[in-house]
């Protein structure tokens, strides 16, 4: 599930939890994106209704783009959605993890958009200089916060836009919720306590990045500082009420499992036991079967235009 920094999608990379990709919370802050491929795909597929509404919104301003660049594309779920939403555009998925780009190309072939779909492997933002021509739309979903100097990266993103081109960032939003405050087991408020630990993890992850620079996360101001104009912000809701469908339960279980592996040691014994029960398929209190599992997430997109 996406947390608001991610898919860490998440989601993460799209990005889901707060981090847009499904941040791979290991005990350290390194993330093996290639290993996360299937989880990133399932999370992005779950969030597809949000992405479709985002694209309809973007399409009001971005008309008939020739080139759309997905910067930090992960396995290409969103890249392929862009190809479907903008049938006249060429889409390039950009990511440092070549195995994720393999998945993106396979998805584009399955969806019949391979003739307008390309990939570019390398580190952001430097790899963008290898694009053949400037982008009419550059999309960065929870990829910017994995770059040490976000202000410099935004300036580099802006430089790769065509005149009149749009930069769209998915950053921020709210931590996803999928369980009642009082679960009927353990101490109420488990998700809020997990959020605190995730925030600590995220701060360490940012501090550990090469060339890390602390930055006030005022995204419209940072877009303006990159020389862009006409900033807009809109938040989109993912609302899957209880009882959640099986694929949503699977994403919730995968998210909680990654949290247990990555930050579970920082929980007290009671919360660790509660998390164990939530992840035990044989327990009637588990997220696999309990009727009150839902998914509620808020995803914030900021846009600005190159003059």
Which helices and strands appear, and what pairs or packs with what?
Blueprint: E1 3-7, E2 18-21, H1 37-46, H2 48-59, E3 67-71, H3 77-85, E4 90-95, H4 98-110, E5 117-121, E6 135-141, H5 150-159, E7 161-170, E8 174-177, H6 190-208, H7 219-225, E9 228-240, H8 246-263, H9 269-278, E10 295-306
Parallel strand pairs: 1-2, 3-4, 3-6, 4-5, 6-7
Antiparallel strand pairs: 7-10, 8-10, 9-10
Number of strands: 10
DSSP helix fraction: 25-40%
Distance between the termini: 36 Å
Series of H and E elements: EEHHEHEHEEHEEHHEHHE
Structural class, by secondary structure, is alpha/beta
Unreliable stretches covering 5 or more consecutive residues:
1-27
Report the mean per-residue pLDDT as an integer: 90
Strand content: 15-25%
Cα Rg:
19 Å
Reported for the largest beta sheet, the result is: 8 strands, mixed
Shape: globular
Folded structure, characterized:
It is built from 9 helices and 10 strands. The chain has 307 residues and is of the alpha/beta class. The strands form 2 sheets. Strands 3, 4, 5, 6, 7, 8, 9 and 10 form an 8-stranded mixed beta sheet that branches. Helix 5 (150-159) links the parallel strand 6 (135-141) and strand 7. Helix 2 packs across helix 3 (77-85) and helix 8 runs antiparallel to helix 9. The longest helix has 19 residues, at 190-208.
Short account of what is shown:
By secondary structure, this protein is an alpha/beta fold.
């Amino acid at each position: 599930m996406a947390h608001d920094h991610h898919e860490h999608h998440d989601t993460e990379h799209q990005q889901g939890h707060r981090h847009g990709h499904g941040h791979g919370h290991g005990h350290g802050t390194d993330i093996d994106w290639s290993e996360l491929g299937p989880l990133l795909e399932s999370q992005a597929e779950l969030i597809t209704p949000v992405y479709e509404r985002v694209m309809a919104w973007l399409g009001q301003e971005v008309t008939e783009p020739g080139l759309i660049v997905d910067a930090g594309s992960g396995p290409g779920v969103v890249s392929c959605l862009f190809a479907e939403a903008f049938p006249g555009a060429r889409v390039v998925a950009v990511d440092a993890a070549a195995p994720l780009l393999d998945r993106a190309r396979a998805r584009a072939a399955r969806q019949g958009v391979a003739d307008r779909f390309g990939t570019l492997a390398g580190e952001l933002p430097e790899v963008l200089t290898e694009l053949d021509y400037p982008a009419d739309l550059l999309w960065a979903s929870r990829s910017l916060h994995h770059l040490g100097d976000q202000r410099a990266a935004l300036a580099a993103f802006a430089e790769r836009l065509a005149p009149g081109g749009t930069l769209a960032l998915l950053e921020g939003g709210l931590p996803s919720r999928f369980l009642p405050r009082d679960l009927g087991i353990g101490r109420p408020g488990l998700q809020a306590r997990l959020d605190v630990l995730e925030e600590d993890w995220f701060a360490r992850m940012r501090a550990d990045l090469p060339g890390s620079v602390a930055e006030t996360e005022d995204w419209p101001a940072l877009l303006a500082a990159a020389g862009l104009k006409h900033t807009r912000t809109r938040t989109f809701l993912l609302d899957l009420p209880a009882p959640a469908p099986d694929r949503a339960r699977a994403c919730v279980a995968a998210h909680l499992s990654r949290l247990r592996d990555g930050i579970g040691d920082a929980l007290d014994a009671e919360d660790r036991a509660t998390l164990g029960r939530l992840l035990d398929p044989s327990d009637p209190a588990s997220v696999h079967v309990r009727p009150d599992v839902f998914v509620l997430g808020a995803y914030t997109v900021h846009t600005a235009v190159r003059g």
